[in-house]
Design goal:
With 418 residues, this protein is an alpha+beta fold. It has one domain. It is 55% helix and 10% strand. The protein has 19 helices and eleven strands. The strands form four sheets. It has a four-stranded mixed sheet, sandwiched between helices. Strand 6 and strand 7 form a beta hairpin. The chain is globular, with a radius of gyration of 22 Å. It starts with a helix and ends with a strand.
Length: 418
């Protein structure tokens, strides 16, 4: 069964066998991997019937294109929110920012004070940005421009050497330089920044800013992917914030904060050479109805106190048509060339980009299934103790295991359509 699970996760079967053996040993052999496979197989049959497909006589290719048709039909429903209200691309961006902010922007995060962010630009003047915006001095620019927008565009305007120098400035940060406030959303003006190549969504971790950019992400099918990407961007900022909260009393806090803000570095632990990311651990605790755990100290209670909603569930709050996708995060039809994912984020990539069956995207299925597998095993005290013992070292600074997330440009992270 580990071989089947490895194929769905895109992991080498021998590595997977070793990890499952360790998790089973620590948890008392509950066969959680087999349970997941059995449950997802049963749920897949139900979903196929809802699509009017025969579970015993549907080819993977047929399922893939049926999902595409279903996804595009649902996108038409979402577009009805916009079509009667939008007068321009800038207007559409601002409307989208407002909608994303209402759904995903209520949580507070621990980020740079804006006054501190301005001081860093005074210390390291962004000469190319000053020239592009036609300012002679940093003070003049800071007086007239939105600091969130300035930080969002820095990686696209300034050189790599400048960004490295700016990163070094961060290293003298103290906890007093940060504050709790809500995630900010900014619409990047088309006339000013429309010529810059970028993903539809980007984050500035230092300021807790999610920027939405003009482009293909606001096309009819792209709106769903952009919405999902924006929610993942919010989650990324929250994870960075929680990580910093846990490190605020370390003597090297400034360097750690600089790493998180400039590179997006997140701690990882390991089980039999397979990494378990900070995000996976957070997802487990964030999905518990109540946090009451004997292994967690008061500081951990703070770290894991933010409840997490899946992007698919958040999308369903925009339009009830998307409720069909809510329970699909773990579902796929296995094939010899890789699974056909029912995860809406994968389908957004596949059908927004019009990918052929052979080039289909499964990354979000892989991540969701891995998170669920670890969550199942972490519900057993032996596994939880094993993982938290490693995690304690990453917080205290002894034996830190660092791992980077998938796409990490300097100063900010970009999120593709989904």
């Amino acid at each position: 069964m580990s071989k089947n699970l490895a194929a769905l996760l895109g992991i080498d079967s021998q590595v997977m066998d070793k990890a499952i053996a360790k998790l089973e040993q620590l948890s008392g052999y509950p066969s959680e991997d087999n349970r997941i496979l059995s449950e997802t197989k049963l749920n897949l049959r139900r979903k196929l019937l809802e699509l009017n497909l025969d579970p015993d006589d549907t080819t993977p290719r047929e399922l893939y294109y049926t999902l595409g048709s279903h996804f595009n039909s649902d996108c038409q429903q979402l577009n009805s929110i916009f079509e009667k209200k939008v007068t321009s691309l800038d207007h559409q961006l601002k409307l989208f920012v407002n909608i994303v902010g209402l759904v995903g922007g209520s949580q507070q995060v621990w980020v740079l004070k804006r006054s501190v962010a301005k001081n860093y630009l005074r210390r390291q003047p962004p000469k190319k940005l000053l020239k592009q915006l036609h300012y002679r001095s940093v003070e003049s620019m800071l007086k007239r421009e939105d600091i969130d927008e300035l930080y969002a565009v820095l990686p696209y305007v300034e050189s790599t050497p400048w960004q490295k120098a700016f990163y070094r400035v961060y290293s003298d940060l103290t906890a007093a330089d940060l504050e709790l406030r809500q995630v900010s959303f900014t619409a990047m003006p088309v006339k000013r920044w429309g010529g810059i190549r970028h993903a539809s969504v980007s984050t500035t971790a230092a300021l807790g800013v999610v920027a939405l950019w003009p482009g293909a992400g606001l096309s009819l099918p792209g709106k769903v992917g952009t919405f999902l990407a924006a929610l993942r961007a919010v989650e990324s900022i929250r994870l960075n914030s929680l990580s910093l909260m846990g490190m605020q009393f370390r003597p090297d806090f400034g360097r750690q904060a600089a790493d998180v803000f400039s590179k997006g570095i997140m701690q990882q632990v390991q089980v039999a050479d397979l990494p378990i990311s900070w995000q996976t651990i957070h997802n487990y605790y964030g999905n518990l109805p109540q946090l009451a755990n004997p292994f967690l100290s008061d500081s951990y209670q703070q770290l894991f106190s933010f409840h997490k909603n899946s992007p698919a569930k958040s999308l369903a709050t925009l339009h009830p048509i998307f409720r069909w996708w809510e329970s699909n995060d773990l579902l796929s039809a296995p094939t010899s060339s890789g699974p056909v994912s029912l995860n809406i984020a994968d389908n957004s990539v596949n059908h927004t980009k019009q990918l052929a069956f052979e080039n289909r995207h499964n990354l979000h299925l892989n991540r969701s299934l891995w998170d669920e597998l670890i969550a199942r095993y972490m519900s057993h005290p032996g596994v939880e103790a094993y993982i938290l013992k490693q995690f304690d070292k990453t917080i205290s600074g002894s034996g830190v295991i660092d791992g980077r997330s998938d796409h990490i440009p300097n100063l900010q992270k970009e999120f593709q359509l989904a």
